[in-house]
Design a protein that fits this description.
single chain, 109 residues, mainly alpha, Histone, subunit A, two-stranded antiparallel ribbon, 5 helices, 2 strands, 6% strand
């Protein structure tokens, strides 16, 4: 994968850098590419678990950890038994994997 360098340099400048070396841009590009590869691999696994060939936004959200569960208490801890109970009830109602996962997620925008 090749992330273009100009937009990466622009991002650094927009964050306040007056000057940006080529090495700095190269280092950030390498980091972003490695991170994107890892996220993509995880997202593909989530899509396969859902028995889909298409990777969706929720797969990326799960892979990056940028989503919160809708049922998370303020301190971010879950009652595991309640979650399992809700998943079992949802499957008994005929809901699919995607629908169950979406019901637990809210995206940070």
């Amino acid at each position: 994968m090749a992330i273009p360098k100009a937009p990466v340099k622009r991002i650094i400048q927009e964050e306040g850098a007056e000057r940006v070396s080529a090495d700095a841009v190269d280092a950030l590009v390498a980091y972003l590419e490695a991170d994107a590869d890892a996220v993509a691999k995880k997202a593909i696994e989530y899509a396969k678990i859902a028995k889909r060939q298409t990777v969706k936004a929720e797969d990326i959200a799960l892979a990056t950890g940028c989503c919160e569960t809708a049922e998370a208490p303020a301190e971010g801890k879950h009652n595991l038994f309640d979650i399992i109970k809700n998943v079992i009830e949802a499957t008994e109602e005929g809901k699919g994997f995607e629908e169950i996962i979406k019901s637990f997620m809210k995206f940070e925008k």
